[in-house]
Specification:
With about 500 residues, this protein is α/β, with parallel strands linked by helices. The protein is built from 16 helices and twelve strands. Helix content is about 35%, strand content about 10%. It binds pyridoxal-5'-phosphate.
């Protein structure tokens, strides 16, 4: 594709005097510009592009055609994957009966919205085995911060201000240590064993009277189920700490087992990953936090409460850690989750874990003769390769990821987790068909073959994308974020 609009910024197709819209009449009367008080008038031109209507439409349509998303093709990005995103949920979330509500309306007029919040909260409690949830946090990392603030406050109120040590496995998601640092906690890393799970022998010497708690992800970022949880929870609780569950990717666990039953005290769930909200480039999301019964009074305000007469109200608890978001969080995301939970229901939701596990293992077993599989055995929703099996080639994980773009696939997560040098993390999700998985496996095998027979093709990929290989480091070090930056460079 190559036309006037292609590959240009909207500022570059701007022509002086072009107009693409006509403003509606001023509802307060038809003032002419001269009647506006001088002090309120601009003294310089805006730096907005001047473009006609067709140019605007074509510019943005061309740009959206360059985008890759779950609606254009297979997207096996490990760890942060969008799972099932039914379109009907977007439709539900766009219903003006909800979107037109103002958060400060009297609660008598927002009963339905509060009921929805309450029912999502109760359903998450049932799914996770934790007593009570807040849906206010905006994302997974935000949920982690709220959960850790609750843990910190729990210790402070018991007079244990010295309990600031938080144990985090070396396979953990980067947000875990980051959130702990934001909460003023000291991070101590625990090693993983050969099979990818937490090394209990390495954990024991770390336990002392300064322990605040331990954060665990399950299945962990290697896609492995942490089998030692009961023992770990016992050790942490004996040492006076609390157990935190990173439930960002809860799909393999749905209806199979519950963090609350495993001994976890606090957890977060990523609604946007597991309960259907299309997201990317940082949002939108929701990171509900659940806690065991005696911690419920610490949950952030405001809380939605069901009164004895069956109506709903907003409550502000005195012992709460306080306010962590405006009103009730990202409400549109919660609406999608509600629609998802109701359409799946108690029975269908149990199939999510089994299917996501089946799909991941199918790809893993079909490719392990060409890609290095450092952690063998059954994985859950995702798994990690450590580059190509054939170590004699110069072809790296980055090259494989770039070559996948030529074949029309989104690249998997690469170079994470940090446990391996050539990590290639693949998560197919529960809703992909066998034919999609087979086509992906065929392409991955083809790339492994190309790495042997014509490595330069892979090393110079991508060949068929709008731009070729980008200089990531330069892009980060010298970002051009505005048109002005660009023309001045
Ligand atoms: C995605 C993810 C997070 C962070 O969630 P955000 O919504 O991106 O802040 C935390 N932990 C794990 C394991 C994740 O996959």
């Amino acid at each position: 594709m190559n036309n006037t609009y292609y590959g240009k910024l909207i500022f570059e197709i701007s022509q002086p005097g072009r107009v693409g819209c006509s403003l509606p009449r001023n509802v307060f009367g038809n003032y002419s510009l001269d009647e506006l008080p001088a002090a309120l008038r601009r003294r310089s031109d805006t730096l907005l592009p001047e473009v006609d209507e067709l140019s605007v439409v074509r510019h943005y349509t061309n740009m959206s055609n360059n985008n890759f998303g779950v609606d254009t093709g297979f997207y096996p990005l490990g760890s942060c994957t969008m799972k099932y995103n039914p379109k009907i949920n977007d439709e539900m979330a766009a219903d003006p009966k909800f979107t037109a509500l103002h958060p400060s309306q009297p609660v008598e007029t927002t009963q339905g919205a509060l009921q929805l919040y309450d029912e999502v909260q109760r359903t998450l409690s049932e799914i996770s085995g934790l007593h009570r949830f807040t849906l206010n946090p905006y994302a997974g990392a935000h949920g982690e911060m709220v959960g850790l603030m609750i843990i910190r406050t729990y210790h402070l109120r018991r007079g244990d201000a010295h309990r600031t040590k938080i144990i985090v496995p070396n396979s953990s998601h980067g947000t875990n240590p980051a959130s702990a640092a934001v909460c003023g906690l000291q991070i101590v890393e625990v090693k993983s064993t050969e099979d990818g799970t937490v090394d209990v022998q390495d954990l024991i010497p770390l336990l002392d009277e300064n322990l605040a708690g331990m954060m665990m992800t399950n299945p962990n970022t290697l896609g492995i189920f942490e089998t030692q949880i009961p023992e770990i929870a016992r050790l942490i609780h004996e040492a006076g700490g609390l157990m935190y569950y990173d439930g960002a990717n809860l799909n393999p666990m749905l209806g199979v087992c519950r963090p609350g039953d495993m001994g976890f005290d606090v957890m977060h769930i990523n609604i946007h990953k597991t309960f259907s909200t299309p997201h990317g480039g940082g949002g939108p999301g929701a990171g509900p936090v659940g806690v065991r019964e005696d911690l419920a009074e610490l949950l952030p305000n405001p809380q939605v409460c069901r009164l004895d007469d069956g109506t709903y109200s907003l409550c502000h608890h005195e012992k709460s850690i306080g306010y962590i978001s405006r009103f009730l969080g990202n409400y549109g995301v919660l609406m999608r989750a509600y629609a998802y939970l109701l359409t799946m229901g108690r029975e269908q939701i149990k199939r999510v874990g089994a299917l996501s596990t089946l799909n991941a293992n199918y790809i893993k077993e079909s490719l392990k003769d060409c890609y290095e599989l450092p952690i063998k055995g059954l994985c859950k929703h995702e798994f990690v390769f450590d580059g190509l099996k054939d170590k004699s080639t110069e072809v790296t994980t980055l090259d494989v990821a770039k070559r996948l773009l030529d074949y029309g696939y989104h690249a998997p997560t690469i170079y994470f987790p940090l446990l391996f040098h050539q990590s290639l993390m693949i998560e197919p999700t529960e809703t992909e068909s066998k034919s999609t998985l087979d086509a992906f496996i065929e392409v991955m095998r083809k790339i492994a073959e190309e790495a042997k027979t014509s490595p330069e093709i892979v090393k110079n990929a991508p060949h068929h994308t709008p731009v070729r290989r980008l200089d990531d480091v330069k892009a980060v070090r010298e970002p051009k974020l505005t048109f002005k930056d660009l023309i001045e460079s």
